[in-house]
Description:
Helix content is 32%, strand content 18%. The chain has a single domain, classed as 3-Layer(aba) Sandwich (NADH Oxidase), CATH 3.40.109. The chain has a four-stranded antiparallel β-sheet, sandwiched between helices. The protein has helices spanning 2-6, 20-31, 51-58, 89-106, 120-130, and strands at residues 43-48, 72-79, 110-115, 136-145. It is α+β, with helices and mostly antiparallel strands. Flavin mononucleotide binds next to β3.
Amino acid sequence: xxxxxxxxxxxxxxxxxxxxxxxxxxxxxxxxxxxxxxxxxxxxxxxxxxxxxxxxxxxxxxxxxxxxxxxxxxxxxxxxxxxxxxxxxxxxxxxxxxxxxxxxxxxxxxxxxxxxxxxxxxxxxxxxxxxxxxxxxxxxxxxxxxxxxxxxxxxxxxxxxxxxxxxxx
Length: 169
Ligand SMILES: Cc1cc2nc3c(=O)[nH]c(=O)nc-3n(C[C@H](O)[C@H](O)[C@H](O)COP(=O)(O)O)c2cc1C
């Protein structure tokens, strides 16, 4: 529970670079997520460290501003050719993104989910930027860096008993 409790969205980052080993751990976590079909999960990842490309990602839409200060961006892409249960691609990708975010918090990184799918203008922007074929669907972008001064992963109570229903609604 400790890691789950402390994870928050962090949108401002320090200048410190993220170590390659940490990026590898994030990717391992992302691929450890539950998927709709074992060994036929749709997820693929574009790791971006290039500052110019990160700046372009930050200009995708109004919601992608946190990327302007990010050290690394990881773009989650669904490969519809290798995916087995094609109707579940968004659920698969969301599971992967969430697992990655939890590992980011564990590694003391700041991270936030930047929405792409299902907004067509955002998906097209990413597809054009990386020259993606039609079977590769951009799902979201994880914006990453060490938290800036005053920013940190810390507990906020999000438990609401009135959201729970037993046996019937
Ligand atoms: C599906 C989804 C889409 C999101 N899209 C964005 C986004 O585009 N830009 C952003 O800054 N935060 C985005 N977030 C982060 C949420 O704003 C954040 O998770 C929420 O406010 C709860 O705060 P917490 O993550 O600190 O608990 C997104 C989160 C989810 C799950």
